[in-house]
Amino acid sequence: MIPTIKWHDSEVWMIDQRKLPNKVQWYVCKRGGEVIAAIRKMVIRGAPAIGIAAGMGLALGANRIRARSYEAFRRQFLILGEKMAAARPTAVNLQWAVERMKNLVESMAECSVDEIKEALRTESEKILEEDIECNKKMGQYGQKLVPKGATVLTHCNAGALATGGYGTALGVIRAAHEKGKDIKVIADETRPWLQGLRLTSFELMQDGIPVSVIADNAAGFLMRKGRIDLVITGADRIAANGDVANKIGTYQVAVLAKANGIPFYVAAPMSTVDIRLKSGDMIPVEERAPEEIYRVGKQRLAPPGLRALNPAFDITPSKYVTAIITEKGIIRPPFRKNLKKFWENSRAPA
Amino acid sequence: MIPTIKWHDSEVWMIDQRKLPNKVQWYVCKRGGEVIAAIRKMVIRGAPAIGIAAGMGLALGANRIRARSYEAFRRQFLILGEKMAAARPTAVNLQWAVERMKNLVESMAECSVDEIKEALRTESEKILEEDIECNKKMGQYGQKLVPKGATVLTHCNAGALATGGYGTALGVIRAAHEKGKDIKVIADETRPWLQGLRLTSFELMQDGIPVSVIADNAAGFLMRKGRIDLVITGADRIAANGDVANKIGTYQVAVLAKANGIPFYVAAPMSTVDIRLKSGDMIPVEERAPEEIYRVGKQRLAPPGLRALNPAFDITPSKYVTAIITEKGIIRPPFRKNLKKFWENSRAPA
Fold first, then answer.
1. A98 and A81 Cβ atoms separated by less than 8 Å
2. Are the C-beta atoms of A62 and A84 separated by less than 8 Å?
3. What is the mean pLDDT of residues A124-151?
4. Residue A350, burial from CB neighbour count under 10 angstroms (0-12, 13-18, 19+)
5. Does A189 touch chain B (CB under 8 A)?
6. Within an 8 Å CB–CB cutoff, is residue B255 touching chain A?
7. What is the distance in angstroms between the Cα of A198 and the nearest Cα belonging to chain B?
8. Is B198 on the interface with A (CB under 8 A)?
9. Quick one: average pLDDT of B127-140?
10. pLDDT tens column, B210-229
């Protein structure tokens, strides 16, 4: 699998996910602002991946800051950090990464600007490496929840392309596959952006994991027919009570899973948990351009002047979530209590 | 509004719904077999509309039968009828119309072949006229269920284009609009065929009824936000217990409506009720070509070799249905008892 994002000399390269699977093409960023634009335009997407991109983008932007004094550097860095954090509102990983990079700068007041720049780049590489490691751990924990011969439904793309590599939901699927569990995947196509049709199918086919794509409308039908054994999705933000923000349509899948007695799992790193937010209703939901609805690929398929609503995420109340799979283990209800416990453990020094 | 289907001299003309809304183009049928192909390829779609097309197609095909004797004519007509009934499996209106045309032929054993041909054409015109009349009555009954200022969610296209004119679900919406109820419509785009994006929006915009289109994935989110007051869909077949076959995704909308305390109404003529079928599980569900999933418009948006599942309909268990709106009135639970009563009334001579 080609990496989702990487340093290439002093540039940040990312696979342009708008063009997949028809074209596999690098999108090259030379400035921090270009990374912000890439996140906004969804050249790169997926909560952990945009966290990584934010880290790299800040290191990239820092390199261009011409300040000599720590104070001048810090001031300019914080402005860039604010812009980066505002690139997309829902996934908390973006803010988490910005926070982490900011904390590093704050801790280096005694260092030279060049040392800080160097450290920022190293930190951004660490975020990437840690993310892949997290995903592998999540996979190991999560695969225990996947029975032999199971058919797994997934929504959107929570795969290698949404992360540093390996994936969250698809990481669990990969781990189950590697254990020889003989699983099959059904991928919601995930309108409007078609992450399932374009990205999840592409990734899984490359790995030889059997996958069939369906219209989002067909998930409930297949559940009722007994053709889906469990659901695994990723997350963009998890509130302290276990409510999950994820790609639009996730809430529907969760309600349908419950109505059909099927477990609904969320796989996400602890960096996706926003312990400050009491409930999912406090998570900001991005509204994207209506064009995503009526312009499919290059074609316009709607009458001129059509109105469209395009919320990009939704909130799944925790009562629909069977368990949350993290790199620290599997979190089960009651989520308020158990998320807090896992959160505190994840903060503790190793 | 242009008619969905009509006689034009000795030809049957239908609006090619595959090309809407970008092109408004007639598709001309000169033979019965061409109507069968048009139904199969979805030049025309929607349960009542394909019933009307079947009637017209049989009259058209009958005109080409060169038999002189009643028996020879009848034999050839029945062969054509069988092919017509098999064009698509789920909507019962198709079989209903074929049955009606067959019964007419059976009742005319004493007549000349020319008289029968003439009578078949007249019958097919009657099916069309009756359908429009039914829709208007449904609209009158149904609009009482729509509160002033309500926002109505609809799935697929159950409009003028799915019927002889006016529509079933959209007929109710039109009637509420005509009563000055100041309603708004939210239309599911309805993947994979995009009937909501392409057809429902087109129809409602022509009539000046406010409509916004959403990805099918967003219906649950909007329900949870309190932005939808009721749901109205059409139906392709209704079993004796009130289970409803309709466009894929309808079941999901119904489950979500229930989870959010929103009424879910089905608008359909009595010809959609299949009183012989005890439950929805006996309704055959058409599987359509996987291309509908991975080829959006003219573009292929998936990796080569991708597998896709494409059930075209689903079954909504009657427990999710608040009421069924028909031309005979509003049917409420218990459906087994009340559908039977309405069915028997609809058979009684006027």
1. yes
2. no
3. 98
4. exposed
5. yes
6. yes
7. 5
8. yes
9. 98
10. 999 999 999 999 999 999 99
| Block residue for tokens 């449904």 | B138
Exposed, middle or buried, B273 (CB in 10 Å: 0-12/13-18/19+)?
buried
Please tell me what DSSP assigns to residue A305: T
- The closest of A136, A269, A254 to A188, measured between CA atoms, is A254
Determine whether the interchain pair A301/B190 forms a contact, defined as Cβ–Cβ distance below 8 Å: no
Q: Do B214 and A252 touch (CB under 8 A)?
A: no
Alpha carbon B334 to chain centroid distance? 24
CATH superfamily of A141-346: Translation initiation factor eif-2b; domain 2 (3.40.50.10470)
Q: Look at residue B94 and tell me whether its pLDDT is greater than 90.
A: yes
Query: Residues of B with CB below 8 A from A186's CB?
Result: 309
Work out the pLDDT band at B172, boundaries 50, 70, 90.
Answer: very high
The yes-or-no answer on residue A236 being catalytic is yes
Q: Which positions in chain B touch A221 (Cβ < 8 Å)?
A: 248, 251, 285, 311, 314-315
Name every chain A residue with its beta carbon within 8 A of the beta carbon of B210: 307
Interface size A-B, in CB pairs within 8 Å, comes to 188
CA distance A258 to chain B (A): 10
Does the domain at residues A5-136 carry the CATH identifier 1.10.10.10? no
Best A185, A203, A246, A252 member to test B by mutation, with max B CBs in 10 Å, is A252
A296 and B297 within 8 Å at the Cβ level: the answer is: yes
Q: Judged by CB atoms within 8 Å, which residues 306-335 of B form the interface with A?
A: 306-311, 314-315
User: Residue range A79-92: average pLDDT?
Assistant: 96
> Which one of the listed residues A16, A216, A236, A274 is annotated catalytic?
A236
- Across chain B, mean pLDDT equals 96
A221-267 pLDDT, tens digit each: 999 999 999 999 999 999 999 999 999 999 999 999 999 999 999 99
Domain with CATH 1.20.120.420 in chain B: 5-136
DSSP three-state, residue B265: strand
Give tens-digit pLDDT for B181-209: 999 999 999 999 999 999 999 999 999 99
Interface contact B309-A194, CB threshold 8 A: no
Predicted pLDDT of residue B349:
63
For chain A, residues classed under CATH 3.40.50.10470 are: 141-346
B297 lies within 8 A of chain A by CB: yes
> H-helix or E-strand containing B158?
none
Cβ pair A143, A135 in contact under 8 A = no
A150 touches chain B (CB under 8 A): no
At B99-117, the pLDDT tens digits run 999 999 999 999 999 999 9
Averaged pLDDT, A295-304? 83
DSSP bridge partners of B152: B185, B230
What residues of A are in contact with residue B305 (Cβ under 8 Å)?
205
Q: Is A265 helix (H, G, I), strand (E, B) or coil?
A: strand
Instruction: For residues A324 and A127, give the distance between their C-alpha atoms in angstroms, rounded to a whole number.
Output: 21
